[in-house]
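Task card 7
Instruction: Convert sequence to structure tokens.
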Amino acid sequence: MSGIGAKVTSKGQVTIPAAIRNALNIEEGDQLIFETAGEYEVRVKVIKNKPLTSLLGALRKEQGAAEMKDIRQQAYYAKARQRYGEG
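Output:
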């Protein structure tokens, strides 16, 4: 796909044509990185913006893994034993 144009506004803004957005799967919230490729040439890279909710379930909790509250409690008791003895 080539030859699709767009005008630059007085504020330096450009609307990306729908055909380009569709071809590159550019969605609201994605970031674009512009790199100069030579005189009057530029490369554009799309950085997909994935919400944190898309990561839910990506990490599995190991069976028997300690919960944070259990870790804190163990640390508290260890510090107390260290400070006051085993009694």
